[in-house]
Design a protein that fits this description.
This protein is of the alpha+beta class. It is 21% helix and 28% strand. The protein is built from nine helices and 20 strands.
Length: 457
């Protein structure tokens, strides 16, 4: 109304309050997932939850949501510490302890985009939305264990990260979310596919029979190729329509509640591999390729070839099919060449796992991990998966385990899978303020693959 008072249109609500769906990408995906997790509630500014109703008092409940290329933990997505594993339910404190590593180019790029195309709070005016101060804290680097830094991370977790709402953290009451179709890009370096895998695992543990599906392909934010020639974009649109026809319009048949994935292929004009489907995320990769190396190698805070790091950066570099010189990174980088792929090769379809003995000297140590595919014919390498893992300063030494972000990738016959562990991967990761050395020994690399145990290759 002209006087600013909200009211329903006419005497009858114009929208069926039980047939409302939410769909969005990027930040819209974050909003869609929040609506689905709240379902029939609204969060007040103090964090309390009240029933969702129209201005006329009609109860509203979201019928379904289909977020694309979003997050479940915004703080972790921007400053990961490597404490998410797809074999476990992620702890509600995993995102802030130990402090994560800033995804430098992505954080800076998102902030620049906001200043050019949106309104942001002036610095120091609103402590619950102070993007400028939050970016400044992250850009300043270690040490991060200040009360101000912890407070900003908790703001992001409590008000902008639906994983904690689903988990019942911060005293939130839990309800079964609306039916969910979660889609993301394997090659999305802004919001990794694992953001949805984390939510999916918790969702299935709390509500085993509740409707939820996963869909992954080579798309989303940078470095995603988003191939125009591929079938996955058409399939994705069709799957969302089918999902909404059933759960929102209530006119269509029951959609499949499965996990669908397309594997990345290069060059960009080659159709992606797939689809691969399974009833669950775990069932998507029934086999495993395991590699072991007992020898000790050193990871140094100054190691790594900056030209390779730039080529693989999602902002300064190119798309997911960008290649770099295939030579090993040199001193200060722990490098592990797996045996040359034989037979018909094998297809990574999940999150690579690294387990190793670490011995650390120095301050503020972390590992930037990269799994690459080396083509010996062209002597070039393509980035397959990456991650950032913060060494816990309170327990820096001993047997440790972390995962690289998930992807789908076929290691063709004759190609060499290679794991590279670096102490510096700028501009993707902010360089540490410390000087450190990490001795890595007794390393085990486990690649989850689509092929069953004993398959050729």
């Amino acid at each position: 109304r002209a006087d600013g008072v909200q009211q329903d249109q006419g005497s009858v609500d114009p929208v069926d309050p039980e047939r409302v769906g939410a769909n969005g990408e990027s930040y819209g995906a974050g909003a869609s997932l929040a609506l689905a997790t709240l379902k029939n509630r609204v969060m007040e500014t103090d964090g309390s939850l009240i029933p969702w109703a129209s201005p006329n008092g009609t109860p509203i409940s979201l019928a379904a949501a289909a977020p694309f290329a979003g997050w479940s933990d915004f703080a972790y997505a921007m400053r990961p510490n490597g404490r998410t594993l797809d074999t476990e339910i992620t702890s509600v404190t995993a995102n802030i302890s130990p402090a994560g590593i800033q995804k430098l180019s992505i954080n800076a790029g998102l902030y620049l985009t906001a200043t050019l195309g949106a309104y942001i709070a002036l610095p120091g005016v609103n402590p619950e939305a102070d993007l400028t101060k939050w970016l400044g804290q992250a850009a300043a680097g270690e040490p991060y264990d200040t009360p101000l830094d912890q407070a900003s991370l908790e703001q992001l977790a409590k008000y902008r990260s639906t994983y904690y709402l689903l988990a019942g953290a911060y005293g939130f009451d839990q309800v079964e979310p609306a039916p969910l179709f979660l889609a993301n890009g394997f090659t999305d370096d802004v919001f990794a596919a694992d953001e949805y895998v984390r939510y999916y695992n918790l969702h299935r543990s709390l509500y085993p029979s509740a409707p939820i599906s996963l869909f992954f392909f080579d798309g989303g934010h940078q470095r995603g190729n988003n191939k125009a020639v591929d079938a996955e974009n058409v399939r994705l649109a069709s799957r969302i329509k089918t999902f909404f026809d059933h759960y929102v319009k209530r006119t269509g048949p029951q959609p499949p509640l499965d996990v669908t994935a397309f594997a990345q292929t290069c060059p960009i004009d080659v159709p992606s591999l797939g689809p691969f489907t399974a009833d669950t995320w775990d069932a998507l990769h029934p086999g495993e390729v395991v590699f072991n190396s007992e020898a000790s190698q050193a990871v140094l805070s100054v190691g790594g070839d900056p030209t390779v790091s730039k080529a693989f950066d999602p902002v300064a570099g190119g798309l997911a099919c960008t290649t770099a010189a295939g030579a090993e990174e040199g001193s200060g980088v722990a490098t592990y060449n797996l045996p040359t792929s034989t037979g018909s090769g094998y297809t990574l379809l999940g999150a690579p796992v690294v387990v190793a003995d670490l011995n650390v000297t120095g301050l503020f140590a972390y590992i930037a991990a990269r799994l690459v595919d080396v083509d010996p014919v062209t002597n070039t390498k393509t980035l397959v998966a990456r991650s950032l893992y913060r060494i816990d300063p309170d327990a820096p030494n001993g047997r440790q385990k972390f995962q690289l972000y998930s992807n789908g990738w076929h290691f063709a016959p004759g190609h060499i899978p290679r794991l590279e562990l670096l102490g510096r991967d700028a501009p993707y990761a902010r360089p540490s303020n410390g000087v450190f050395s990490i001795s890595v020994s007794n390393l085990e690399l486990r690649l989850p693959v689509h092929e069953v145990p004993g398959a050729s290759g």
